[in-house]
Amino acid sequence: MRSIAFLSAFVLAVVLGACQLGQPGATGRPVSLTVGLGYLPSVQFAQFYRAQQQGYYRELGLEVTFENRIDPDLITLVGQGAIDLGMGDGTSVIAAVGQGIPVRYAATIYARFPSVVYAPADSGITVPADLEGRSLGIPGRFGSSWIMLQAMLASAGLTPDDLDVRLYPDFGQMVGLRERQVEAATGFANNEPVQLELEGFPVNVLRVDEITPLPGPGLVVGAATLRDKAPALRAFVAATLRAMEEIAADPTLGLDAAVVAVPELEQDRTRQLAVLEATIEMWHSPYTLEHGLGAIDRGAWAESIDFVGTLPDMEVPSPAMLDDYLTEELLP
């Protein structure tokens, strides 16, 4: 209840500040924001759908348009200013900054790292060391799942070369595992393992959280957009966090909003609700429970940057300055 009351006060402050600054929407003309979400419309974006449908963005003088993009493209477009902000992996932000792309991670959405390795319960794979010599399906040698896998294997003294890594570029590794083409696969804690359990296919899930902190997906903004549209971006974050609080308290609100946005989800409400509930778990960590949804754990980020800097083909400036990766000016 404390966080909801605090967030409500922040939303009011955003409104008052917008009027004082003349934006967003203070002149009667809404500020347009283009927001990039993930590859496909999904119940996992329920907070954005609810904030849009309930008029939370509009109340703060915003006109929001959503686009669905794969993560690497989205980060590049945000850096170019072609998209105002978007949902991007924290690990992708680290990689982008290392390549000179001017983006900042502005609000945590997934406080727990969602990428996992999962394997059939009867596979005997229960810890990272058990992956040695096994076949594992992965979309490609890139992105958050690839970084997660390397961190997990390193904890057991292994590298990807110690596995039979098989590529599923169309993200079909769950089907491959179900059909026993591979013995393990990468995926998201709130997606494939949930679906397989509902199908009566129990799995063991290996998480990287206990091994090394890695930043989960959050809202990412370009440096130029942050300079030019800070009040509008701050309003967007406030409205989104408001919807997250409401959905965390009553997940059916998020499911209903997702069904309105993606009507075909209505055909399998039980599965979609299970995915959403698992997603809500990812929003919370001991850090966000203390500091509120959206809060950025700078200590964990520092550890993540140090780890990513040890990986092949990953460039991290030395010394790495956290403010080159993060901004907290849009948060309550």
Sum up the structure in keywords.
332 residues, alpha/beta, D-Maltodextrin-Binding Protein, domain 2, 2 domains, five-stranded mixed beta sheet, 10 strands, 16% strand
Any overview of this molecule?
- The protein has 332 residues and is of the alpha/beta class.
- It folds into two domains: 2-112 and 215-324, Periplasmic binding protein-like II (D-Maltodextrin-Binding Protein, domain 2), CATH 3.40.190.10; 115-207, D-Maltodextrin-Binding Protein, domain 2, CATH 3.40.190.10.
- It contains 14 helices and ten strands.
- The chain has helices spanning 2-21, 46-53, 56-59, 71-80, 90-98, 143-154, 173-178, 192-198, 223-228, 230-249, 251-261, 269-283, 286-291, 298-308, and strands at 31-37, 62-68, 85-88, 103-108, 115-120, 135-138, 164-167, 184-188, 203-207, 218-222.
- A five-stranded mixed β-sheet has the order 2-1-3-10-4, with helices on both faces.
- Helix 6 (143-154) links the parallel strand 6 (135-138) and strand 7 (164-167).
- Helix 1 (2-21) runs antiparallel to helix 10 (230-249), helix 2 crosses helix 11 and helix 11 (251-261) crosses helix 12 (269-283).
- The protein is globular and about 60 Å long.
- The model is unreliable at 18-22 (pLDDT under 50).
Q: Summarize the biggest pleated sheet.
A: 5 strands, mixed
Tell me what portion of residues adopts beta-strand conformation: 15-25%
Q: Work out the number of β strands.
A: 10
- Output the strand order for the largest sheet: 2-1-3-10-4
Tell me the Rg in angstroms.
20 Å
Distance between the termini: 16 Å
Task: Provide the low-confidence segments as ranges.
Answer: 18-22
CATH architecture of the largest domain: 3-Layer(aba) Sandwich
- The name of the CATH superfamily of the largest domain reads Periplasmic binding protein-like II
Individual helix count: 14
Q: Which fold name is given in CATH as the topology of the largest domain? A: D-Maltodextrin-Binding Protein, domain 2
Structural class: alpha/beta
Mean pLDDT across the residues is 91
Query: What CATH first level of the largest domain would be assigned?
Result: Alpha Beta
Q: What is the element string, with H for helices and E for strands?
A: HEHHEHEHEEEHEHEHEEHHHHHH
Principal-axes geometry comes out as: globular
